[in-house]
Amino acid sequence: MTQKDYTVEGRQFRTGTDYARALRDKRTIDELRSKTNMGNRAALQKLKNELDEGKYSFYTLLGDDFKEEVEEALRSPVRSSKKEKHGKAGGLGGKGNGTRNGTEKRPAGPEKKQTSREGPGSAEMDAIVQEELKRQEKRRKLTILACSVAAIGCLGYFGIYSWYQYRTGNNYDKLSELKGSKPISDQVEPARTANPLYTLDATPEPKEVLDEYKNLLIKYKKLIGWLTFDDKTIGGESGFPVMQTTDNEYYLRHNMDQEYDKNGTIFMDKDCDVLKPSTNFIVYGHHMKSGRMFGKLDLYEDQEYCEEHPYIYFDTIYEKGTYKVMYVFRSRVYNESEIVFKYYQFIDANSEQEFDSYMEEMASMSLYDTGVTAQYGDQLLTLSTCDYQEKDGRFVVVAKKIKE
Fold first, then answer.
1. Alpha-carbon distance 346 to 358, whole Å?
2. Which single residue of 84, 185, 338, 371 has CA 20 to 30 Å from 119?
3. What is the mean pLDDT of residues 210-231?
4. How many Å apart are CA 4 and CA 7, to the nearest integer?
5. C-beta separation of 270 from 246 below 8 A
6. What is the pLDDT of residue 146?
7. Mean residue pLDDT across the chain
8. How far apart are CA 34 and CA 8, in angstroms?
9. What pTM was computed for the model?
10. Which of 187-196, 316-325, 374-383 has the lowest mean pLDDT?
11. How far apart are CA 113 and CA 117, in angstroms?
12. CA torsion 356→358→361→366, rounded to 10°?
């Protein structure tokens, strides 16, 4: 591909844009030359003053060259017509001044040649300027389009997120009303109205679903309990229904109606058993920035808050329970190969020694001492949510079931 020649008055320019600016400067300079008697010192001095004052704008080095030309003309004595004819008429291209007195005229040949250069150059400059303007306009439109798409995306995301928030809150309010309604016992599955509950000594005891949960179980087969807090800042007045399924990932992105929902649902670990029961009920929930789910569970980071609101109420579908906060700590999800205490694996203690070992681990991690302790045989409740202070971090509250 042939390289374009971007030369003006002896100076080489790299880009089409710079070349267009140089042509614009040349037109300004030629106009000043034509209307100024370059052989008259008074006229030259006036032009120099105007140039020094910035009356004329130049965009390339051609402007500096022209100023030097005017200053050199002021310093030089009056020259003969021979010098005018054979001097550096190009001026700026060969560092000559290109001046002429008031009575002399440039030869017709060079003047016509310059005119023939200026015509095509001016047209080329206009074409380059127009092309640059088109590119700028295209970039402007693309920028506006990108910003519009981003704005629509943000508004759409906010709208969907707000809808999830509204739907979740509205559903929980309705569930709370259904929870307290009179049971329709003949519609509840018999298998769930009376299940054997095995105590620690393996003695089976029949357990029936609490009346307040029977209607809920007709619609929500995976319901396992209900969670509320002493302070209604967490969970509001209605609290949280707690679900359980064989997949711990499912309720991270689904609500109780099996619909996709970024808020997810509060759920119990798949390995916990409310009939046996397990030593430790582990319950998970998202730490939503809106405060939904376990978004405000980290209020328990403050010991004073814990002392003012020490009680958590967790009912399984078979029995009610009041729990008192015992430990509050931060942890994270570890690799399987790491040998370290993993609170999320503590579901059952097979011996008193094992139970005491778990208690010591959690006590050493606790942010403060609540004064609450547990013994082998006590029922525990662990609430777990994300903590963003480290990668895969978790914020954990452990409570012990107490007598009513």
1. 8
2. 84
3. 94
4. 9
5. yes
6. 83
7. 81
8. 18
9. 0.57
10. 187-196
11. 6
12. -100
